[in-house]
Amino acid sequence: MKHCVIIILLLASFTAAAQHKYYPPELYVGASFGYTISRVGFNPKVKQTYLLGNNGGLMFRYIATKNLGWQVELNFQQRGWNERDSATNNNFYARRLDYVEIPFMTHFNFGTKFRLYFNIGPKFSYLLNEKELTNNTNNSTLEQHYKPVYNRFDYGFCGGPGFYLIIKKQVFQIDGRFNYSVADIFSNDLLNRFNYSNNLNISLSAAWLINLK
User: Which pTM was predicted?
Assistant: First the structure.
């Protein structure tokens, strides 16, 4: 089912971008920086609070028709999880996962100089590094406390609203996004603890772009 969602988003993105009448195209390049709020969808469930991280990168946006275009990004994004003790409610284990990611999104916008927009599409990621931020587990034998990430490649979909202001050739933007990973970070075969363990996070970022066309 998860794989079907990715295929549908891909088809919708390319189909929508192909259906257009003549419209003066707009081409933008720019950079963004912001923050992430992350956790991991563990099953069996692991009690967590959210882990804060950084997010930023480069973006390329092409608006081919009125209100419709597509956007590609190359981002660095920090994800991970932060566990709490069920008895004391204190944080006792946290691990940060650093990814490079490439989202391919359809871009819907409404307005002229001030625009509201919504982006949605698939994304692909690769784990660069992982780091324990907190470990007060006293030699825990739980898989998520001592095993490294099994699947370094990650894929899923992302989407969310935002707005931007166009001033001459410059664009100032605020973007909100929900990121859902389909791949599991730990192995989900019968010999391992988790049935699934996928990354979940929300990001908020500011961006500056230049209109090249």
Answer: 0.85
